[in-house]
Amino acid sequence: MPIRRPWWRKWAFRFKTMVRYRLLFLTSAPIILTLCALVTITLYWSIHYTWQGALIDVDERLDVAENSIQLIQSQQAYNVKAFAESYQFRIKLANHASQEDFARWVSENKSRYQLDFLRWRSVEHLTNKLQYLNLTHKESFFSVLSQDELNTLDRDLAKKAEVPMLNEQGVETRGLVSRTVVSIRDEHDHVIGFLDGGILLNNSTQLVDQISNLIYPKRDGFNRRVGTITVFLDDLRVSTNVPLSSEESAGRAIGTRVSHEVNAKVLNEGKEWLDRAYVYDAWYITAYQPIHDQFGNVIGMLYTGYLLWPLIETYLTNLGEISITIVLLLLASGFIVHRGARDLFKPIERIYKVVKLVQMGQDKRIGPLGLDDQHELTLLAKQFDKMLDLLHERNQEIQQAALELECKVHSRTASLKDKTEELERHIKLLNQARDKLVVSEKLAALGELTAGIAHEINNPTAVILGNVELIKFELGEEVTCVGEEVNAIMEQIDRIRNITRSLLQYSRHGGVQDEVTWQHINPIVDESITLVKTGAKKKGIVYVSKLNAKTSVEVNRNQLLQILVNLQMNAIHAMEGKGILTISSEDWVENDKSRGAIIHVEDQGCGISEEQLKRIFSPFYTTKRDGTGLGLSVSQSILSQTGGEIRVESEVGKGSCFSIYLQKKATPQLLVSNL
Asked: Measured between alpha carbons, how far is 219 from 241 in angstroms, rounded to an integer?
């Protein structure tokens, strides 16, 4: 029974031996790599810019919150000053019977002016008048007051300021207040007292809700992120709309503390915090800034932010949609390439099968391929069948002639044993000549077929070029992200087509005819180094370039680039993975006369023996197991069309130096020597 190979070995064999599957791989690989690069760049940019946008957004909202507090403080100062300048206040001040009654009356007006406390302090009852004068330098300011100071300002203020600390024992009795102190003067401009009014921020929800509604407005039909505002006394939340649970609104997280990282940066260092932070029980995108008192000391913080997870959820949803679209595009492209490659290579595979059967001695023909009569493969198959028919007819004629000759010999030499043996030897030699003639005819036919198949390589390269142009069209403006890679692919496709065209022309003994123009050789050398350098780095090859040539020469740019790449790849193979590859150029000067330019490609490889040096420019001579032996031969032939040549110097064990001599004025000549 035949041994069944595993499916993966069967497919591996197909990819190694069948052109269709190799073309599928080569066509799909740029698409896959391009899409991977596009996904990677998109992922990086989207994460980076989405995160930066979120930080900028929350920072702007913090600025709005700060401006809102400043406006509230300005309104507070205006209210205190308005009360101080009111007619009733001046009449009461001038006619009050006692300081206690007047102070009580002043305190009763706090609600009228939207204040939490309003206190009259007479200079006569103050022990430190300068302390209050210092408080009048700023229109409004933040201040931290102890429980006794709160009681002094208002008897209910200390009770309102108490904040029970969650997750730990104790009560915060200090109060964070926004104060405005206005000095009151008599008709002689002497200070007779102070009005001390302001707002208590402890346990205040009106302030944070008012700011939250301003910077995070709720609108019908818009799905906006719900943001939170917090005012801290030191690291303790004394006024906030951060919920106790991120899943549902169940009270406010008043009495909880800020994280250690934020505490260290904002309170200890006095800097702003703009990053993600753990707020009570969930991660938020946050912005913190310190709150200073009238003396510039950090006494608390102002915070704004919103939950991080909704932003991540939206980003992951968008990323999933993009990924699905890319996968579908990749599958569709792969299907189209597979179908196209199958239809293209079925006729070629049939031709290859017939060639193998003919080599094995079977009398087979290609026959109709199911293509248009003017299709190049159809014409090639017809020519091949005609050559096989002619070969068969000649074989039949040779065999018939041999039989006739053999019969004549036997009839004429029947009685002569010695001459019969001699004639048998001649017949044997004739049969050998016939076999050689058959082999020669087959080799000639196969040579014609090889040239035709090389010509057909242009068709799959056109398919590859079409797919690359389709990628550019589908990507649109985003193609700039991978523009360099796409341009490199298209340049390599041009090189493939130039090489196949050169091989066809070379095989037809017509030489390489292409556009010859004036060129500076240094940019061409640089481009060849760029093409080879990436693969060379992975093998530990170090490039050294010394480009000193200044003379322009007449040369075909693409052909010179092909020759330079070929020589560099030969040098890398000769060094077996590591060493220094030196590329240099100089002006070609002989007898003080400029003749052109010279390019040297020097390696540190194994070197070439004298016997091999005589044959390296011969067609099909190679020392590499997978080489064709055409590289140096074709290169020398190409250069000979413009009067150039390749010379080589080598020493076994030390390395080789290939020198390309290029004339200023192209003068085609026949060059068959190797130096």
From this structure: 19
Q: How far apart are the first and last CA of the chain?
A: 59
pLDDT in tens, 635-670: 777 777 777 888 899 888 888 899 999 988 877 654
Cα three-residue angle 407-408-412, rounded to 5 degrees: 120
Q: Which two tokens stand for residue 391?
A: 């070969």
Rg (CA), the chain: 47
Burial of 206 per CB tally in 10 Å (0-12, 13-18, 19+): exposed
Q: Exposed/middle/buried for 590, CB within 10 Å: 0-12, 13-18, 19+? A: exposed
Distance CA 195, CA 389 (A): 121
Phi, psi dihedral angles at 159 (to 5 degrees): -65, -40
Phi and psi at 467, nearest 5°, equal -65, -35
Within 10 Å of residue 314's Cβ, how many Cβ atoms? 13
The rounded distance, in Å, linking the Cα atoms of 256 and 165 is 6
Quote the pLDDT of residue 612: 81
CA 18/CA 345 separation, integer angstroms: 9
CA angle 16, 457, 354 (to 5 degrees): 65
Q: What is the spatial distance between Cα 641 and Cα 516, in angstroms, rounded to a whole number? A: 10
CA distance 539 to 528: 17
Give 144-169 pLDDT, tens digit per residue: 998 888 888 887 888 888 888 887 78
Whole-number Cα distances in Å, 242 to 175, 232, 251, 318: 20, 12, 8, 28
**Residue in the structure block whose two tokens are 């069309």:** 641
**Contact yes or no for 92/102 (Cβ under 8 A):** yes
Cα(234)–Cα(300) distance, rounded to whole angstroms?
A: 4
Find out whether 241 and 253 touch, Cβ atoms under 8 Å: no
Tokens of 206: 């009106």
Q: Name the residue type at position 345.
A: F
CA distance 460 to 462: 5
Backbone region of residue 660 per phi and psi (left: phi > 0; alpha: psi in -120 to 50; beta: other values) = beta
pTM: 0.47
Q: What gap in Å lies between CA 326 and CA 526, rounded to an integer?
A: 36
The DSSP element (H or E) to which 273 belongs, if any, is: strand 273-279
Q: Give the CB-side neighbour count of residue 628, counting CA atoms within 13 A.
A: 7
CB distance 65 to 215 below 8 Å? yes
Alpha-carbon gap, residue 473 to 120, rounded angstroms: 78
Instruction: List 555's β-bridge partners, or say none.
Output: 517
Two tokens at 228? 């939170």
Closest to 570 in 3D by CA, of 609, 527, 627: 627
Per-residue pLDDT at 389? 83
User: Beta strands 655-663 and 593-602: pairing type?
Assistant: antiparallel
Burial class (CB in 10 A: 0-12, 13-18, 19+), 302: buried
Q: Please say whether the beta carbons of 562 and 498 come within 8 A.
A: yes
